[in-house]
What we know:
Number of strands of chain A: 12
Strand order of the largest sheet of chain A: 3-2-1-5-8
CATH class of the domain at 86-192 in chain A: Mainly Beta
CATH topology of chain B: Cytochrome C Oxidase, Chain A
Largest interface: A-B, 77 and 92 residues
Oligomer: heterodimer
Helix content of chain A: 25-40%
Distance between the termini of chain B: 14 Å
Radius of gyration of chain B: 23 Å
Low-confidence stretches of chain A: 296-302
Largest sheet of chain B: none
CATH topology of the domain at 86-192 in chain A: Immunoglobulin-like
Strand content of chain A: 15-25%
Number of helices of chain A: 7
CATH class of chain B: Mainly Alpha
Helix content of chain B: 55-70%
Mean pLDDT of chain A: 90
Structural class of chain A: alpha+beta
Amino acid sequence: MAGSVDMLYFFLIAVSASFACLIFSAIAYFMVKYRRRPGHEQAVPTQTHIGLEIAWTGIPLLLTVVMFVWGAKLFFNEYNAPPNAMEIFVVGKQWMWKFQHPEGRAEINELHVPRGQPVKLTMISEDVIHDLFVPAFRVKKDVLPSRYTMVWFEATRTGSYHLFCSQYCGTQHSKMGGWVDVMEPADYAKWIDGPGAGEPLAVAGAQLFQKFGCAACHLAQGNGQGPSLVGVFGRPVKLASGATIEANEDYIRETITHPGVKVVAGYQPIMPTFKGLVSEEGTQQLIAYIKSLGSENGVKNP
Amino acid sequence: MTNTASAPQMPRDHYLNGRYGLKSWLLTTDHKRIALLYLVSVTLFFLLGGIYAALIRLELLTPYGRFVSDENYNKLFTMHGLVMIFFFLIPSIPAVLGNFMLPLMIGARDLAFPRINLASWYIYVLGGIFTITAAVTGGVDTGWTFYTPYSSTYSNSAVITMAVGVFITGFSSIFTGLNFIVTIHKMRAPGLTWFRLPLFVWALYGTSLIMVLGTPVLAITLALVGLERIFHVGIFNPAMGGDPLLFQHLFWFYSHPAVYIMILPSMGVVSEVIACFSRKKIFGYKFVAFSSLAIAVLGFLVWGHHMFVSGQSVYAGMVFSILSFAVAIPSAIKVFNWTATLHKGAVIYQTPMLYGLGFIGLFTIGGLTGLFLATLGVDVHVHDTYFVIAHFHYIMVGGAVMGYMSGLHYWWPKITGRLYPESWGRLAALIIFIGFNLTFFPQFVLGYLGMPRRYHTYPPEFQVLNVMSSAGASILGVGYLLPLLYLIWSLRYGPIAGPNPWRATGLEWQTSSPPPTDNFLETPVVTDEPYNYEAKDMDSG
């Protein structure tokens, strides 16, 4: 990604520099050649030249179309993570980053990732708007308190890279950062089982699912007071309002905090809110658990 | 130019000596005196904003943040932005030079609503008092952008006082815009058709449209922040059921067009100055005139380019990207036409012209780097970094302030009746140009290397470029202090200017300097197209 962003960047520099050169040398040339001096006291009248006006409107217009298409293509890629990307959950809060690997290991202000593997970060904030920025990978994305945002990258070289918060978030904004450590895949595999590794996210989620009593209503067979959650993730869900919504991370999070808003068709709005009871980390564990109950293909995840 | 045969004389009666005393100033409805009230006030705010900037650059000399605390640093850049934008840049050219010149340039005795004009200054001062109050009662740490939910819930600083200050000041620019629009429509001298209007007037017209249409949105947005902060009505904070991105949409709907409030008047000034000191008609008059309106209209449709990484939909991003490219075209048209105006001219390098050429150079760089930010894939990387800081300072300081300095020197003889010292003027223009580039060019590099904006401490590898930038800022500071000194000096000791020291066309030069209270002894009649310098030089030459 860094390479293709840089390529477009250099193209922009080339276009800008040639325009700047053109304009500045014309100005410099005219400044010298047409300076008022004895023997040249009078300006020579010139007429507005319609051909020139069209040329210097049309050519920049064409160039900007090239810039737009090229930039938009890159942007679209940045939006869509490859399906094989490994997913890491991120919580931003004043003023630290928490990273949760699906295997269970969590870390703060430091993110370990394997080289040569697309990594997708699913991010949320506990308070104000933050922004996760890794200059070396040419990616950044705001981290909102209201819903999940996503950013992905694939590191191609091992090493440590700066990680910044780039959306102003209060007193210690400039200290809300750390490092992305890119490791060889084998080293990463060792690291992920290293000291401090907790339970896998989905297992922790399953425990929460029991602890909060979710399992009492959301029976797997679909005969409970709440809909079955098996195989629901990533699938369209019909709501009581008649609308259809994709059961993604945002929808699951919203039904945990505001269960009455988007009730599944055929069910009563009887679910109590868990706002304030389940932390953002807990919500992520529950999402991981629900995901593990089946993907959009109906295939049970290992 | 001092080649006139007899030394010019000060006119016996003019707007400055008609009446005396504090009351004659504070209760004046003369647009020229109100312009001077504005001149003094915006200069004071410029100094205040400059002090904030100096402290910021001083702090960034080292990466470790040793000079002020995190909290105070955040307040410094917030106050710098708020003061410079709302209390200097937005009122600077319209309320000072526009106020003074607009009636003179269209052959009118005053603006359409002289009392509203005076009211606008009082409102500005009231807003300013709130701002100073906010500054001395602890300052504000939200950034000038007041992003929610930080501003509406989390910040522990004087957000409400400051928002009230900005809210109030908005009305002064609404009043000014309203006054200008009516004046331009209704009070042009006989024969002064739309296409005989000076381009500065066209630019002020475009600016006024934005002021009148955009400012109310900012006012409402800040009122909503207040509502959430004081009464906990959930509008922007998701914890209360609000949407934080809604704030950004509303805020940038005003604040992006506000950039054009700052730059359009400068473009107008530069059009006057380039024509006068090239001794030529402006090239492509209608293209320059209509591009001002195109910028004013398109400027309202590009706010989403501030939100490419905010979580806005990918398709919205694409629409805003293409519209942002579109707004670059009318700016490019202006630059090309100004350049073409020099062709076959008889170019004179007086101070206003030096600032005018400096404007073209810096604005061109500012505009071209704007393309980088409109390009989605590249913006993702440079968004919220020093690249953006450099870009908008090239537009607002390199563009808007250079234009303001150009106009101030160009019309200074008209305003005061005296010339400023020319060689000091040229020296200061040169120092400002060099200091500016040294300050802000390294910031483009810093941004691409990844230094985020609003950072109190930063990784040590960015120090060299930051030191360069701070060094440039000190040169820039000297450059701005010089005009302050020599312009004040010239009030007493400057050579008498006479009615038209630049031998310029335009109605404002047909009356004495300083003009009489009623501007013209008899209403001028316009029979010629604007900027007919070739004919003027032919007659006198």
